[in-house]
Amino acid sequence: MNIISKIITPPTTKFSRTQLLLVGRSGGTRRFPILGNENFKSQQFNPQKSWAVMVSADIQWQVIRKTSSFLRRQRGIPKHFSRERFNIKGVNSIRFNGLVHRKGLDIQATSDGKGIVVVMKKRGKTFFPAKSGVSVTLKKNSRKSLKSVKNIARSCRIPHKGLAQKRASQLLRSLKPVASRRGRRVRKTEV
């Protein structure tokens, strides 16, 4: 689906509204208001902020799905992976993408390797990526950590609660020390 977009800014009056004009391949046009505030007399128009606030996840996905810098592709593997923050499964798809959705959850191992860090997406910090997450460190045993992850996912209203628990479980399992197997004893030969 090719979409040509153009931002139309009328002269600033009391009831003027900045609009996004989308032109499809077939020639049909559709206008979307960018700013919801009806009387923005003295407000400066910032296309980056307005675009991110207004544009739906579907349109954002159409823009970044093949050109994201987080994509990881390999020859012979048809599935493309993605390394962006808040992508709980690591797959390049609109369902799991962490850039286009308002809500998100990210689970990582701690730097010392003794627990996991759960990062939730903050709602008002869309334009400040470094400040966009609230992190909680869990260093309890695995059962308590998994229960905490489930409760955090429920409180954030994340649609992928099961995936969050699965990811946390995988990370906790990988942090356990590997039990070393004893090798075969070699008999000493007497000379």
TrEMBL record:
Biological process (GO), any one: translation
Record keywords, A-Z: Ribonucleoprotein, Ribosomal protein
Molecular function per GO: structural constituent of ribosome
Entries under Gene3D superfamilies matching the protein: 3.30.390.110
PANTHER family xrefs: 60S RIBOSOMAL PROTEIN L28
Protein name as annotated: Large ribosomal subunit protein eL28
GO cellular component terms listed in the entry, alphabetical order: ribonucleoprotein complex; ribosome
InterPro entries: Ribosomal_eL28 (IPR002672), Ribosomal_eL28/Mak16 (IPR029004)
Domain of life: Eukaryota
Source species of the chain: Brugia malayi (Filarial nematode worm)
Domain Ribosomal eL28/Mak16 stretches: 59-174
Family from the record: Belongs to the eukaryotic ribosomal protein eL28 family.
